[in-house]
Amino acid sequence: MSHYIHHIPGRLRIRSGSFRCRSAAAQVAEDRLMALDGVTHVRLNPRAGSITVQYDPAQVTRSRILEALDEAGCFATAGRGDALIGRSGELFGKALMGAVVNRAIERSALKLVSVLL
Questions:
Q1: Residue 108 has what pLDDT?
Q2: Do residues 25 and 77 touch, judged by C-beta distance below 8 A?
Q3: What are phi and psi of 54, to 5 degrees?
Q4: Domain map of the chain by residue range?
Q5: Res 77 pLDDT > 50
């Protein structure tokens, strides 16, 4: 799953499927962010799947905020979902390709038999 990050010094917004409809995990993330020195406001929007953090750039860096979200597990869950989606897409592709190859072999065999007869 991809993450969209919009950043201007003092305000960081991250949009990710990780923030959708997971109130307990989102609350943990919000608590971790508010515990950081320099973070003044955190707004979570589960419907949009985004979190907005307002902070004092003199006290906390963007990297530290992202690190706190990673520690809270906000990005790890998305990675597992991406891996699952990628694996299922790979399996579907293999199955589809197998069906196409089988069909081509059947047609070739029929043509070969018809030429021989």
A1: 79
A2: yes
A3: -105, 135
A4: 4-74, 86-117
A5: no
Helix (H, G, I), strand (E, B) or coil at 56: coil
Q: How confident is the prediction for the chain on average, in pLDDT?
A: 79
Residues 6+ apart with CB under 8 A from 55: 10, 11, 12, 36, 38, 39, 40, 65
Q: What is the pLDDT of residues 32-51, one digit of tens each?
A: 999 999 999 999 888 888 88
**Could you say which architecture CATH assigns to the domain 4-74?**
2-Layer Sandwich (3.30)
pLDDT of 92 reads 66
**Dihedral pair phi/psi, residue 8, rounded to 5°:** -130, 145
Phi, psi of 46 (to 5 degrees): -65, -30
Q: Are the C-beta atoms of 43 and 52 separated by less than 8 Å?
A: yes
